[in-house]
């Protein structure tokens, strides 16, 4: 079964636009499946290059533009998979874009692809970038009733394609992804010599899900300095394991300004890190998992729409808080994420500090509209049955 990915609609619009398309994402999220699906549309006019193969890497490394163009032959669509494996891949892609103008290059890469500006520096102005994440809820099913029924499963096991499509042993699958794939590229290419520290840091972050995180406290807990913590967290972000949510702070006397929240791109991976696959009714972290799930689903929605608002959380020194805030076009939109039902009103300080901002509570009753991606040109939902 091949699932339609919501970024496909926007990606298709950039084909043969004169720019390389780069699809970033962690391993095992479906990058290869996505580009091979595109390849089917062009059949004999396409070329798939798997950079895990040594001969492919040699063919793309330290070559002149003439050698590269000759290697591609008469192909119109060239798919370069796991391109981070090629040394100086940014320069190779630049030469292809500049010297093969009729050819559409699509490259995929995991974390290290974006490290140290090895891609971006040579390719300034020559690429369109997409990020592919684990499956979104609307990609898995467009049936709201079915999605509601499986929400507890998604909270515990997440939405990596293998977990969704081959659900016989999700715990073993998730442990395998976590241990064998998730952040290995970042460690390898950055020469990290203390992988045990990375695992301890991930465990600490997983246990603080939904809470504010202090680099100083993490450093004290793990026996390293604050700069080391910051560096490792940045690597884990580049590996699409976690992402940070900074605080919204426009009034420094009232608002928290220096902390941050950290979420996981997949709740199943988070649970694998702490080895807790207990069902929802036996957990004490359901609210935090729900908050994580909806915020990452919102990120997936925004990526599919090519919509990139500034995102924050908000809290005051008097403990008034908002889980998630987006700023777009100069307007703030606040969202309170709650698993349990109940009547709630917006923070009085939020209303007085930001009188022009919107406020909405997102629960199991109304989350569907919060996460669905819409084509801004047609007004139609991007997902397909």
TrEMBL record:
Residues 17-138 form the AAA+ ATPase domain. It comes from the Bacteria. Pfam families: AAA_14, DUF4143. This is ATPase. InterPro entries: AAA+_ATPase, AAA_14, DUF4143, P-loop_NTPase.
């Amino acid at each position: 079964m091949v699932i339609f990915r919501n970024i496909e609609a926007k990606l298709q619009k950039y084909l043969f636009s004169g720019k390389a398309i780069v699809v970033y994402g962690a391993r095992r999220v479906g990058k290869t499946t996505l580009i091979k699906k595109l390849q089917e549309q062009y059949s004999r006019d396409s070329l798939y290059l798997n950079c895990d193969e040594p001969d492919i890497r040699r063919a793309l490394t330290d070559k002149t533009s003439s050698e590269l163009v000759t290697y591609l032959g008469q192909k119109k669509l060239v798919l370069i998979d796991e391109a981070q494996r090629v040394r100086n891949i940014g320069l190779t892609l630049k030469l292809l874009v500049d010297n093969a103008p009729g050819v559409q290059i699509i490259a995929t890469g995991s974390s290290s692809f974006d490290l140290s500006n090895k891609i971006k520096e040579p390719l300034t102005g020559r690429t369109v970038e997409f990020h592919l994440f684990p499956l979104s809820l609307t990609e898995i099913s467009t049936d709201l009733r079915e999605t509601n029924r499986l929400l507890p499963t998604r909270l515990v096991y997440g939405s990596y394609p293998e977990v969704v499509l081959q659900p016989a042993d999700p715990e073993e699958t998730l442990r395998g992804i976590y241990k064998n794939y998730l952040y290995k590229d970042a460690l390898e290419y950055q020469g990290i010599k203390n992988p045990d520290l990375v695992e301890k840091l991930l465990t600490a972050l997983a246990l603080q899900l939904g809470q504010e995180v202090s680099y100083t406290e993490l450093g004290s807990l793990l026996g390293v300095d604050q700069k080391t913590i910051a560096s490792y967290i940045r690597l884990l972000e580049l590996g699409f394991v976690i992402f940070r949510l900074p605080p919204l702070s426009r009034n420094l006397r009232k608002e928290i300004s220096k902390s941050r929240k950290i979420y996981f791109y997949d709740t199943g991976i988070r649970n694998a890190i702490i080895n807790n696959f207990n069902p929802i009714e036996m957990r004490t972290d359901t609210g935090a998992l729900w908050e994580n799930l909806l915020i990452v689903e919102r990120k997936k929605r925004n990526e599919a729409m090519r919509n990139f608002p500034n995102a924050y959380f908000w809290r005051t020194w008097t403990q008034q808080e908002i889980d998630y805030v987006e700023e777009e076009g100069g307007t703030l939109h606040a969202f309170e994420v709650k698993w349990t039902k109940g009547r709630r009103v917006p923070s009085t300080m939020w209303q007085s500090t930001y009188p022009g901002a919107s406020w909405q509570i997102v629960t199991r009753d109304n989350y569907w509209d919060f996460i669905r991606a819409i084509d801004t040109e047609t007004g139609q939902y991007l997902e397909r049955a």
